[in-house]
Amino acid sequence: MKTVAIIQARLGSTRLPYKMMLSLHGKPLIEWVIKRVQKSKKLDDIVVAIPISQENDILENYINKLGIKVFRGSESNVLDRFYKAVKDTDFTHIVRVCADNPLIYGNEIDNLIEFYADNSCDYAYNHIPKDNLYPDGLGAEIISFELLKFLNENAVLQHHKEHCLSYIWDNKEKFTIKTFDPPNKKLHRVDVKLDVDTFDDYYKLSMKNFDINTSSEELIKLFGEIK
């Protein structure tokens, strides 16, 4: 099993434009994502897949300075962008990371990879609290390269091309989908949202004191006050 994380990122967000370059405690959000994914011990490599549009030149320039590989492809067909990012490589499995999750943590990626390896399934996830006890924003999704190739060849709806793994969810009868609870019970907080979709999300993160190395458990202590 040779696994690559593909980080899906762009500057053209409609709800929070240019958010990948917004500063969170002194570092752009894209750097938070990359540095925290790098804490994984089970990934073999990391690639950031971004659109070819000119505005994303800024993003590529910054990612290059961090020493991370960049692949550029279609803005609207994210599925094709993902496939082309790895089609000429020998990676057998792909972890999809959404750059909306600046507090993703390498340990939770490792838990996902280990769960996938130990359980027979087509797709596994721990990035959202759906049929599991994970907070929103700590984990990722994993599929095989063969499934990614199948999706790219068979998805015809624009929705499935733009939201690159949504074909799986919309055709659940065709696939085995599995998830799991955080091994650390202190992370069993489905009420906690750590991703950044809007300015309010960004504001919430900006107003708490933590750094790029803060663990998942410490983050839950900060953001998981019972309301």
Class of secondary structure makeup: alpha/beta
- Uncertain segments are none
| CATH class wording | Alpha Beta
Radius of gyration: 17 Å
The largest sheet is: 7 strands, mixed
Helix content: 25-40%
CATH fold-type name: Spore Coat Polysaccharide Biosynthesis Protein SpsA, Chain A
> How many separate helices?
9
Succession of helices and strands:
EEEHEHEHEHEEHHHEHH
Q: What's the total number of strands?
A: 9
In CATH terms, what is the architecture? Alpha-Beta Complex
Account of the 3D structure:
The protein is of the alpha/beta class and 227 residues long. It has a single domain (3-223), classed as Alpha-Beta Complex (Spore Coat Polysaccharide Biosynthesis Protein SpsA, Chain A), CATH 3.90.550. It has helices at 29-37, 57-65, 78-86, 106-118, 145-154, 158-162, 166-170, 199-206, 216-223, and strands at 3-8, 23-24, 27-28, 45-51, 69-73, 93-98, 123-125, 141-144, 177-179. The strands form 2 sheets. A 7-stranded mixed sheet has the order 5-4-1-6-8-7-9. Strand 2 and strand 3 (27-28) form a beta hairpin. It is globular and about 45 Å long.
